[in-house]
Amino acid sequence: MKHIALAMAAGFMLASPAFASDHGHDSHGKTEAHAPVGDDVIAAQRAALAKNTKGAGFGPQSPRDIDSAAGNNARVFSAAPAHTAMNLCNIHFHKNAEHKGGEFTTYAGNGDGHGYLSGFKYNGQLSEAELAPVSHEICPSAHGSLYPGDTIEVHYVHSTADITPGPTLGSCLSESIGNPQLRVETQVYVLVNDKKAADFGKLTAISGKGKGAQATGIPSNTGTPVQYTGSTTGPGYNEKGSPYQVSWSVRPQVAKVNIDSVGKWCKGNVFNEDHAHGVRNLVQNPDLLSAIK
User: Fold this and answer.
1) CA pair distance 96, 63, nearest whole angstrom
2) What's the rounded Cα separation, in Å, for the pair 162 and 173?
3) Does an H or E element contain 40, and which?
4) Residue 35: exposure state from Cβ atoms within 10 A (0-12, 13-18, ≥19)
5) What is the C-alpha separation between 117 and 114, in angstroms, rounded?
6) Which residue positions does the secretion signal occupy (predicted)?
7) What is the DSSP letter of 175?
8) What's the confidence (pLDDT) of residue 175?
């Protein structure tokens, strides 16, 4: 059983860039220029995804447009329990929202074709003060830093396994349960240069470091979450299906967060998260989407 659980954990980490490191630690502070790719590149990735999943039995995929309820994928799996009845196992975030809908429908562009500089941005307007530049780098990586006005999508990942919070999706598995139910509570934030804005440390606070930990700072005032069945995400799945089943809960409204508090979190947390992850292309193929009920 131990070998099976470890093998599945390794599979999660290798197959799901959303939960695994996507750059070396020596890349901090270095910014690489990535020219945006053309629409033909994204179209080719979508075509490859359709070809590689057709008739293969994949379940519904993520991310998606939460304002569109349509979906033809009939693969059924039981929805995970409420997150309060599960164990928090991981928290990480993506630069720009992976999902589309609510207050984040502004397309960021095609990006570099590998998940960076793409996704969706906050639709609202910010003041000059909120957009004032900061004098230091925030969560730097090989793909750049974060800046006031940037949008991030935070994933609070929960598991039915008896685990403790930690790095990568491997922390959501245990030796005794290799196929736990997974739920991702999702909140989109916009970064502002305002010390009175929400504190990211409080938004990602956990009730304890041991088993049974809960995320105590998930916002409850950002609209009724859209619930649907999907998969793990990340740009590694742009051309192939994710085999992992996830119950999603995506809040439609955006909250403002103090950018300095995000930078502080990146410098030290139990999840070893120090940068923003890339995004998977929005899944549009109805055969890969569940119907939102």
Assistant:
1) 12
2) 8
3) helix 39-53
4) exposed
5) 9
6) 1-20
7) S
8) 87
3-state helix, strand, coil in the chain (%, to 5): 20, 25, 55
> Do 181 and 211 touch, CB atoms closer than 8 A?
no
The domains of the chain are located at 2-23+31-288
How many Cα neighbours within 13 Å face the side chain of 242?
28
- Contact present, 70 and 291 (Cβ < 8 Å): yes
CA atoms within 13 A on the CB side of 270: 18
**Distance from C-alpha of 13 to C-alpha of 189, rounded to nearest angstrom:** 25
Taking a C-beta distance cutoff of 8 angstroms, is the pair 98, 119 a contact?
yes
Nearest to 224 by CA among 90, 48, 102: 102
Nearest partner of 93 among 293, 274, 290, 288, judged by Cα: 274
Give how far the C-alpha of residue 137 lies from the chain's centroid of Cα atoms, to the nearest Å: 22
CB crowding 195-220: b at 16 or more within 10 Å, else e: eebbbbeebbebeeeeeebbbebbbe
Q: Give the 3-state secondary structure of 236-264.
A: HHCCCCCCCEEEEEECCCCEEEEHHHHHH
Using DSSP, state whether 70 is helix, strand or coil: coil
Higher pLDDT, 144 or 14: 144
State the pLDDT at residue 34: 66
User: What value, to the nearest 5°, has the Cα angle with vertex 121 and ends 116 and 122?
Assistant: 155
Q: How far apart are CA 97 and CA 141, in angstroms?
A: 18
pLDDT tens profile 142-171: 999 999 999 999 999 999 999 999 998 889
93 and 273 Cβ atoms separated by less than 8 Å: yes
* Tokens standing for residue 195: 């010390």
Residue 265 identity (one-letter amino acid): W
* Tokens at 186, concatenated: 């999702």
Alpha-carbon distance of 108 to 18, in angstroms, equals 19
| Secondary structure (3-state) at 7 | helix
